[in-house]
């Protein structure tokens, strides 16, 4: 691998077209417009789209009745979110808050993962085809779009070889950690703006660029990303900070020459982003149903297991779901497999001396690998006695209090994707035998280095090709719900109380009643994060006596002895929820739930395919 393993031994600068200039090689041939994609670009995007379809293939077999086998609750929550976006547009309601879940208190959508940047623009699709179709379309599309923008960033700013950019883009869009989150968490695969943000940050202050234009573009991108995924934006900002510091340490004069333009553009972009998002951010932390931190700092213990780095991920062709039970305490944010780790180490060893980009990648890998370990070092599923870096970080630091250490490893995954592109690009520009100046030495090296290098990269990434995400069938809502049979029983301003009441643990099917009817009636409980009496964030609505009684009865499978106090509490809870009707549909615990509700509320009516208690 030669010394030109990065096109420019400085921060990524202008596009490849700009570097050649008009009339390259004295031909006078006009330069192709930058906005016009080449055939290789279209082929790359087409391949990414096919990969996106492959990942979601099991959903399309029965899109209306299938959810993620691994995270069915999260899957249903995002279906509910797409319905929320459509409801907000259709009724011209404030999308930052919803009263259709957790009635009567509602849900602060900015304080939850609401994906408003996607659910609102896709509202017409949801209204036409339903949230299940929108979910499957968006999930595959977000994966492909992330790969495509990564390809654009790499091919225009970092590597010359389109094949190198394709490989890097494919990994950035479909890395094992990203595909893992595709199981019910489309917000973590919605990274299509992040490569554009990174490219813009690294261009700030470059010679010949307008700091005003770059600042405005950066501000618009950051503002929109806030409505897609704030956590991934924070991770990207931390990664950019490390990149800028690493660049400045290695090229202090060049960094100083760009400092004024960089600072001006960054300040303008930050001010614009803050101006555009000031009210939503204020609403997130000060609006109704906002909260401060999570109770107990529950995320801080979720660090990456060291063995996970060399393990094949569950949803790849080489993955084994059984391994996850051993070391998969939380999430699979790395899970590169040992071949890729070995190839990455060799590539860094060969490139790091001669390529600034490779050295910056090495810094990113080291910093964020260490940071992802968490408060205690874990090895092969067991906690060691060695403290991790998060053992020294207070749980209540602003922003940090909501972070999960293992997700910092997603920056490592991004760095590995860039490294793959750099390595392929270096191989592509290794001189073959009998060509160029000094062809004897370079040619002899190229004769074996190219095929060996290409084979090593292929063998490292092919086991990580994603498989279709596992899906399971879920029963549709009762006909009483989908046909609108509930309408005569639920007047305006009142709620429909489904049994079991939706929560983060129970009531997945009943949460979908709301999503699949377009939020036409409000429900109590739900799947969200809201405040407890102390203002700390907790998962789901605080349980009321009746919801607690329902859940404990479901778990035990038998109705406990009831008292008049239980009946009084049930009446009080129904008044609090502003209930008009209590509905029990088909459920694995239907018999015991009907017995419980009958003991609390009296005999039910059988209406269509549900049991009904009018209250």
Automatic annotation (TrEMBL):
Region of interest (Disordered), ranges: 1-33
Coiled-coil portions: none
Protein keywords: Membrane, Transmembrane, Transmembrane helix
Transmembrane segments: 42-61, 135-154, 163-182, 188-204, 233-249, 261-282, 335-352, 359-377, 408-427
Highest taxon, organism lineage: Bacteria
Protein name: Glycosyl transferase
Species in which this protein is naturally found: Micromonospora haikouensis
Taxonomic lineage of the native organism: Bacteria, Bacillati, Actinomycetota, Actinomycetes, Micromonosporales
């Amino acid at each position: 691998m030669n010394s030109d393993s990065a096109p420019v031994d400085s921060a990524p600068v202008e596009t490849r077209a700009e570097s050649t200039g008009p009339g390259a090689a004295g031909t006078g041939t006009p330069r192709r417009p930058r906005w016009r994609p080449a055939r290789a670009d279209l082929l790359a995007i087409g391949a990414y789209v096919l990969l996106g379809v492959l990942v979601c293939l099991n959903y399309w077999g029965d899109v209306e009745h299938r959810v993620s086998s691994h995270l069915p609750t999260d899957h249903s929550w995002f279906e509910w979110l797409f319905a929320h976006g459509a409801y907000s547009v259709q009724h011209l309601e404030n999308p930052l808050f919803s009263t259709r879940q957790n009635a009567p208190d509602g849900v602060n959508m900015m304080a939850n993962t609401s994906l408003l940047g996607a659910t609102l623009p896709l509202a017409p699709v949801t209204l036409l085809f339903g949230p299940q179709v929108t979910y499957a379309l968006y999930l595959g599309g977000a994966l492909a779009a992330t790969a495509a923008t990564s390809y654009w960033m790499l091919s225009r700013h970092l590597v010359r070889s389109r094949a190198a950019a394709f490989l890097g883009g494919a990994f950035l869009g479909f890395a094992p950690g990203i595909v893992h989150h595709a199981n019910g968490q489309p917000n973590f695969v919605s990274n299509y703006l992040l490569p554009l943000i990174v490219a813009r940050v690294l261009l700030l202050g470059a010679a010949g660029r307008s700091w005003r234009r770059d600042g405005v573009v950066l501000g618009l991108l950051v503002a929109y990303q806030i409505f897609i995924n704030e956590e991934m934006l924070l991770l990207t900002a931390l990664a950019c900070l490390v990149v800028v510091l690493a660049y400045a340490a290695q090229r202090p004069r060049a960094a100083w020459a760009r400092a004024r333009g960089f600072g001006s553009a960054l300040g303008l972009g930050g001010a614009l982003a803050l101006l555009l998002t000031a009210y939503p951010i204020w609403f997130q932390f000060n609006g109704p149903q906002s909260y401060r931190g999570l109770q107990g700092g529950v995320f801080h213990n979720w660090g990456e297991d060291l063995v996970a780095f060399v393990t094949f991920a569950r949803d790849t062709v080489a993955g084994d779901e059984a391994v996850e039970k051993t070391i998969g305490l939380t999430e699979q944010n790395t899970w590169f497999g040992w071949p890729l780790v070995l190839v990455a180490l060799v590539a860094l060893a060969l490139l790091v001396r001669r390529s600034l980009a490779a050295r910056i990648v090495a810094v990113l890998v080291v910093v964020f690998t260490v940071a992802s370990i968490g408060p205690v070092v874990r090895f092969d599923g067991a906690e060691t006695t060695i403290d991790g870096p998060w053992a020294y970080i207070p749980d209540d630091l602003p922003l940090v209090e909501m972070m999960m250490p293992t997700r910092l490893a997603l920056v490592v995954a991004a760095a590995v994707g860039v490294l793959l592109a750099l390595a392929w690009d270096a191989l592509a520009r290794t001189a073959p035998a009998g060509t160029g100046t000094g062809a004897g030495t370079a040619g002899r090296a190229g004769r074996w280095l190219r095929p060996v290098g290409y084979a090593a990269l292929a063998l490292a990434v092919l086991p990580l090709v994603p498989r279709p995400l596992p899906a399971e069938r879920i029963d549709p809502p009762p006909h009483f719900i989908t046909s609108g049979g509930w309408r005569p029983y639920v007047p305006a301003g009142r709620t429909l109380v489904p049994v079991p009441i939706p929560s983060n643990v129970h009531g997945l099917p009943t949460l979908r009643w709301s999503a699949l009817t377009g939020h036409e009636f409000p429900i109590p409980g739900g799947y969200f994060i809201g405040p407890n009496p102390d203002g700390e964030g907790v998962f789901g609505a605080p349980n009321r006596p009746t919801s607690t009684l329902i859940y404990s009865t479901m778990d035990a499978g038998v109705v406990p002895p009831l008292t008049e106090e239980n009946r009084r509490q049930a009446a009080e809870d129904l008044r609090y929820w502003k209930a008009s009707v209590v509905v029990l549909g088909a459920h694995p615990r239907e018999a015991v739930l009907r017995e419980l509700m009958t003991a609390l509320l009296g005999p039910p009516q059988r209406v269509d395919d549900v049991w009904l208690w009018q209250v």
